[in-house]
Design goal:
It contains 12 helices and 33 strands. It is of the alpha+beta class and 624 residues long. The strands form 5 sheets. The chain has a 6-stranded antiparallel β-barrel.
Length: 624
């Protein structure tokens, strides 16, 4: 993965702003010894060996150099380079070495995505790693991150600190407010998550999309995943399969370094090159992967099938071999992983049934565990799996169900139907719930497994209420109102439904609203009169609120008869029939807890095949 750089007379200003933002948001950044002590200075002193490493101050234009990288299989080869220049303050506090490849293969391919991290040697000592290039460059011109800057990766983090992908974050840093009722329809559009996740990794220089090798689904499905990956700075590349059997690889300088974000029946993996190995620490890439700081991702060996020459950006076509450790730090000047350690992953069991397939297709995957990245990876994987079977016809319905298993034995289960909306509503409910659980401000929630089932059928279930009839618009307390409803489907097929509403015997005289509606208007009704049921005040109530929201079905017809406000709701607790004097005292503006009037209603719902998009109502007069 080569980070492309487009020169500009404004780059110094841009770099200052972007790097300052990066360091402020991620707490990452390599330690550079530049005239004074720094958090990683003591480590650098012990790690620096002048017999192994050459300092940038010892390098000058015209010196001969070479790099180690893999162009085929798992064999590390040497490629000759010339030092073109030394760029001081290439980015604030960071220098770079400019080199040009002279090997015939380098001249043929130009800069290659996947060579990032390839160690560069000058006078037999390691100088740094290939890290960035210029788009559409006809020459194999690379920028090299000095090895001194890479050796400081991770030294700014406290020893033993947990990965940022697993800790609980403040709701103030997220694009939603936990003080408001949960509305999973907001998560049907993942742009808020992707913008937040992308904001954690401002560009270090000019950043182009990082190739992400995808296997297990077809090329058309891979292209369909791109909308989910672009905000993360990733570009999906179909590569068609696994490495040859009985192939072994190891993480050694110049060897292929893999970050498998999804592995199993579907695989999404980012590829680069190992720069250095010190004990169980593996350094690579020479630039950030996603700029997330402390992370907990799998780290694996890889196999290079070939190098694909491309006019815009050549790249290595590669496969994952074996997971051998865990990636721990993702900072501006590179990544660091630890051999022999295990990263937490989320098991995904996905079943897809499609109109183009006689049998269901089952996918089992392990997804990297990160508070913001995991839902986005799930989204890309699910969309890719469905697209691989044919996508969506113009008129379609999606039937789905799922189970989110939490540590401690509690599960979130849901089942619903959506029409002519693709996976939008399904992803909003399933992945929106996962996003809220992983990013809640109350405490850590560990998700042990996600099991999902999706079925795509070629029919629409859109319908509307065409007429409403009421037996009597003026009634006495205790009497029953008979309501007739005609629902007209998309194909003009009509179905009649009836409801009975019994007016409470103690209901005061007055006018009351009777409404028959579909699921979307019903959801609006709940947010108006029962939003407290969707509030999360702590971990148990978060799960309760999600269970309530997930239980609301779309294939339902609702008949509602709203009653006068009676009592109050204190946070999530309903206190009906509370005397008016006590209600007034509780609703004092001086109280800090959330207290609103309690509004009861009579409700009857019926299961139907259609999804009703409108509502009809009648004004009922109650008179003794």
């Amino acid at each position: 993965m080569i980070r492309n750089v487009r020169p500009s007379v404004r780059l110094d200003v841009v770099y200052c702003l972007l790097l300052a933002t990066l360091l402020g948001q991620t707490g990452g950044g390599a330690t550079v010894v530049r005239g004074g002590s720094s958090p990683g200075a003591s480590y650098l002193e012990s790690a620096w060996d002048p017999a192994l490493y050459i300092d940038i101050n010892e390098i000058s234009p015209g010196m001969r150099a070479y790099c180690l990288t893999c162009y085929d299989g798992t064999d590390v080869e040497q490629f000759d380079l010339d030092v073109v220049s030394v760029m001081r303050n290439y980015a604030p506090g960071h220098d770079a070495i400019l080199v040009k490849g002279t090997d015939e293969r380098f001249l043929h391919t130009g800069p290659v995505a996947g060579c990032s991290g390839s160690p560069v040697f000058v006078e037999g000592r390691m100088a740094g790693a290939l890290a960035f290039a210029w788009p559409l460059s006809t020459d194999p011109l690379y920028g090299v991150t000095p090895i001194r800057e890479m050796l400081g990766i991770g030294t700014r983090h406290a020893a033993g600190s947990s990965a940022s992908g697993r800790h609980v974050v403040s709701s103030d840093s997220l694009p939603w407010d936990f003080r408001e009722p949960i509305d999973l329809s907001r998560f049907a559009d993942a742009s808020a998550w992707t913008r937040r996740c992308a904001s954690l990794a401002p560009t270090f220089g000019h950043r182009t999309l990082v190739p992400l090798m995808v296997s297990g689904i077809g090329a058309q499905a891979v292209a369909g995943m791109q909308d989910s990956l672009t905000p993360l700075g990733l570009e999906a590349v179909a590569y068609g399969g696994r490495a040859p059997l009985n192939t072994a690889g190891r993480l050694t300088p110049g060897g292929t370094l893999v970050v498998p974000l999804v592995r199993g029946d579907i695989e999404l993996a980012a590829f680069g090159t190992v720069t250095e190995v010190r004990g169980n620490k593996v350094f690579g890439f020479g630039h950030y992967f996603m700029g997330l700081g402390a992370v907990d991702f799998p780290m694996a060996t890889g196999y290079v099938h070939t190098v694909v020459s491309n006019l815009q950006q050549s790249f290595k076509l590669a496969s994952t071999l074996a997971v051998v450790g865990a990636l721990r730090f993702d900072e501006p000047t590179g990544i660091v992983g630890h051999l022999g350690e295990t990263a937490r992953t989320l098991p995904l069991l996905l079943t897809v049934r499609h109109i183009n397939s006689v049998e269901s297709r089952h996918f089992q995957c392990q997804v990297a565990y990160h508070k913001l990245l995991t839902p986005l990876l799930l989204k890309a994987t699910i969309e890719g799996a469905v697209q691989s079977l044919g996508g969506f016809p113009p008129e379609h319905t999606v039937l789905y169900e799922g189970a989110i298993r939490l540590q401690g034995g509690r599960h979130l289960r849901f089942a619903n139907v959506s029409t002519n909306n693709g996976l939008r509503e399904f992803l909003g409910e399933g992945l929106g719930s996962i996003m809220l659980l992983m990013n809640n401000p109350f405490g850590e929630v560990l998700i042990e497994e996600v099991e999902l089932s999706v079925e795509v059928v070629a029919q629409t279930r859109v319908a509307r209420i065409s007429s409403l009839s009421v037996s009597d618009l003026t009634v006495r307390p205790g009497e029953t109102i008979r309501v007739g409803v005609v629902v007209e489907s998309y194909q003009a097929r009509k179905e009649a439904h009836t409801f009975e509403v019994t007016v409470p015997k103690d209901l005061a005289d007055g006018e009351y609203e009777l409404t028959v509606c579909g699921p979307y208007d019903y959801a609006q009704h709940l947010r108006r009169v029962a939003s407290h049921r969707m509030l999360a005040l702590n971990l148990p109530s978060l799960v309760d609120a999600l269970e309530y929201v997930l239980s609301l079905r779309r294939d339902r017809l609702f008949c509602l008869f709203e009653l006068p406000a009676n009592g109050v709701t204190v946070e999530r607790t309903e206190l009906p029939d509370l005397p008016a004097t006590k209600s007034l005292v509780l609703q004092s503006t001086k109280r800090t807890v959330r207290i609103v009037p309690y509004v009861p209603w009579l409700e009857t719902q019926k299961a139907i095949r259609a999804i009703v998009s409108n509502k009809h109502g009648a004004r009922i007069v109650v008179k003794k």
